[in-house]
Amino acid sequence: MTDNTACTLIKPRQYKSDVKPVWCPGCGDFGVLGSITKAFSGLQIQPENAAVISGIGCSSRMPTYLSTYGFHGVHGRALALATGLKIARPDLTVIATGGDGDGFSIGGNHFLHTCRRNPDMTYIVMDNQVYGMTKGQASPTTESYWEKSKLTPSGTGINPFQPLVIALASGANFIARCSSSDTNGTARIIMEAIRHPGFSMVQILSPCVTFRPEQREWKNMLIPAPDAMQATSDSAQAARLLLTDEGVYTGILYVGRRPVYQPKPESGITDIKELDEEFRL
Amino acid sequence: MSEITNRPKHFIRSAEELLAYSLALETEAVERFNDLADQMEMHHNYDVADLFRKLAKIESFHVDHVNQASEGKQLPNLQAWEFEWEGGESPEGGLMGEAHYLMKPWHAIELAMHGEKRAVAFFRHVAETATDDKVRKMALELAEEEEEHVALLQKWQERFPKPEEGWDEDLDPPAMLE
Predict the structure, then answer these.
(1) What are A88-121's pLDDT values in tens digits?
(2) Considering only Cβ atoms within 10 Å of each terminal Cβ, which end of chain A, N or C, has fewer?
(3) The domain that contains A84 carries what CATH number?
(4) Which residue, among A231, A208, A107, A224, has the nearest Cα to B175 in the 3D structure?
């Protein structure tokens, strides 16, 4: 028998649950699911040592499709939940997942302050520039001229939110952009994001084939950032790139060295029975 | 569909390395077709789901075949991103973005054929650029096998009429633009 069959490594498919995704065929989120499982396998994280936390939206269904711990939480609150979990259980690998609406509109405030706090976790945003689950309204990252929703028949007319610029300005410690069609490249970047201490922000451009079918072309438009700009620790250089690249550069675009936020729980309660006591009616 | 050839960026240096590439290619194909079958089942497109499931089964025989050929050899243990496929994805991976919930069996076979043709191009390229005779011979054999698969798929596809324009129109769409 060869080594490749004899080894006991955890394969990517072992991180998938038995629940089959309900996403539209062709959706970029399938690729992201594949990338997350490949990254977990690359790090050989035991499923019981990881937790994937989400809010609401198509992409927020991610925890359901993974065999790790998961929590499909409240709209926009994935980062608040994930931060709490990481503070309480620093031993866990904590990943927050969601979409652009959940993360930057409803959860926009949490996004800013999680970047500021810099807890040691990874935030994967599947950005399709539309609210897909509620049938195609403009989201914070939608182009100002997008006219396909009846709510904004002349486009939103306002500047799209620039998540990576905001993340950099707010203190995120690792910033990357990827394409869902590049599942292997995205897996490598997610792995690096998990490894890097502090708050890692990974924006994955993930087409909504139902409401933004033109986004299928993204795979031909995105290009790797120049080598000299990959993984820079120079925040001014990263800012210049992120403000001028029109969202087409992929790769690790900033790597910071800020201290990680990891306060010790102050309650002094170490026994679950004591905790129960506190809530007894 | 993307015209990326998925040639390796560098030479394949040994039979073991070629087998590792071949195993990854076939394993990705099995997983991809099973994923596509799941998607179609989820959207009640059962004919196409069955077809994808059959394709996954056929690809799993290819995985067995590569595993048999690897018997007694120590293959390099590469992570998914360490394979130097041109365009980043294996020839028979990267097909997920082309799926549609109303796709017909003809489309499913077209998709499979596209992957197989890319696999042929991959193994042909390896054979052309190999400096090791063993690698060249094995790559040619693998290319011929993939060509046989293309021919079989072409015959299979003839059983289904090419869908007419508008096959993807849904009179009762699950999700309507407002």
Answers:
(1) 999 999 999 999 999 999 999 999 999 999 999 9
(2) C
(3) 3.40.50.970
(4) A208
Chain A residues 87-116 with a CB less than 8 Å from chain B: none
Other C-beta atoms lying within 10 Å of the C-beta of residue B170: 10
- Confidence at B88, pLDDT banded by 50, 70, 90: confident
A97: which 2 tokens? 């997942």
The tokens for A174 are 């690792």
> Taking 80 as the threshold, does the pLDDT of residue B174 lie above it?
no
* Dihedral in degrees, nearest 10, Cα atoms A223, A228, A232, A237: -90
d(CA A32, CA A46): 19
Give bridge partners of residue A175 from the DSSP assignment.
A201, A254
Q: What is the mean pLDDT of residues B43-68?
A: 96
Closest CA to B19 of B87, B78, B92: B78
Residues in chain A: 281
Rounded Cα–Cα distance for residues B173 and A281 (Å): 50
Give domain status of residue A198, yes or no: yes
Give the pLDDT confidence score for residue A2 in this predicted structure: 39
Q: Hey, of B81, B100, B170, which one would you mutate to test binding to chain A, going by the most A CBs within 10 A of its CB? A: B81
Q: Which of B23, B70, B178 sits opposite A136 (nearest CB)?
A: B178
Residue A4 counted as domain residue: no
Domains of chain B, residue spans:
15-158
Is there a contact between B97 and A209 if contact means CB atoms under 8 Å apart?
A: yes
Cα distances from B30 to residues A261, B36, B139, in angstroms, run: 43, 10, 20
Q: What is the ipTM of this complex?
A: 0.90
Tokens of residue B30, six digits? 């099995």
pTM of the model as a whole:
0.92
Name the residue among A21, A185, A210 with its Cβ closest to that of B88: A185
Angle, CA of A4, A7 and A13, to the nearest 5°: 85
Gap between the Cα atoms of B122 and B139, Å rounded: 9
- Report domain B15-158's class: mainly alpha
Residue A44 at interface with chain B, using a CB cutoff of 8 Å: no
Please check whether residue A192 touches B, CB under 8 A.
Answer: no
